[in-house]
Amino acid sequence: MHPNPYAQKLVAYMERQGYQLFRKPGEINIIYAEGASLDGTPNRDENDRFNDLGLLLRFTGSGEPEIIHQAVCTTEPGAVATYSAQARQLGGVARVQLTQYLNCWKLGFHKSNPAHPALVQCAPMLVHRDRNRDFKRTGDPLMPAWGINHHGTRPGYVAKFVGIFSLGCSVRLHWAEHLAFIALLKTDPR
């Protein structure tokens, strides 16, 4: 892949926010853009849809940012999860804060399933609990959460709705793209 204007915009945004960027050779930055299409343009960001953008960004030897992976995903829980008894017991389904998380995930397996490689949560984090089930973070309390992973749907399946695939996890729609995401992360020297 090669440097592009969208990669440069992402870096500029992250720098304005004071987020850490990993720039050493081979280091990969994981970025999600909620309500963004594959080309980075905003979409309608409808509830219960795979309409977010998952990206992997690294820097070239000359210091230019390059997007090495982009995929359709969701960073938001589905409707089934939002209205589930489990969500109600937890005070609402988890909605990840719009911030940078460092050192919260490691390579592993989603729900300990060796057939489902994933980035699994390995450190505490706070999430918004969508107690009023309005599919928004506004006014929702921040509470601790566990099990917030980066995973895929399942092999050979393309979901129309997020449904139960996400209770707060970031989920890639296409299994092959999820496996490519994991394979690239395994190349990061850290």
List strands and helices in order, with pairings:
Elements: H1 5-17, E1 29-33, E2 52-59, E3 65-74, H2 79-82, H3 85-89, E4 93-96, E5 105-109, E6 117-121, E7 125-130, E8 142-145, E9 150-152, E10 170-172, H4 175-185
Structural overview:
The chain has one domain. Helix content is 17%, strand content 28%. The chain is built from four helices and ten strands. A five-stranded mixed β-sheet has the order 1-2-3-10-9. The two termini are 21 Å apart. The relative contact order is 0.19.
The helix content, as a percent range, equals 10-25%
Strand content: 25-35%
The biggest sheet amounts to: 5 strands, mixed
**Count of individual domains:** 1
Poorly predicted sequence stretches spanning 5 or more consecutive residues: none
Using only C-alpha atoms, the radius of gyration works out to: 16 Å
Structural class: alpha+beta
| Average pLDDT score | 96
Key words describing this protein structure:
three-stranded antiparallel beta sheet; five-stranded mixed beta sheet; 28% strand; single chain; alpha+beta; 190 residues
Question: How is this structure best summarized?
Answer:
This protein is an alpha+beta fold and 190 residues long.
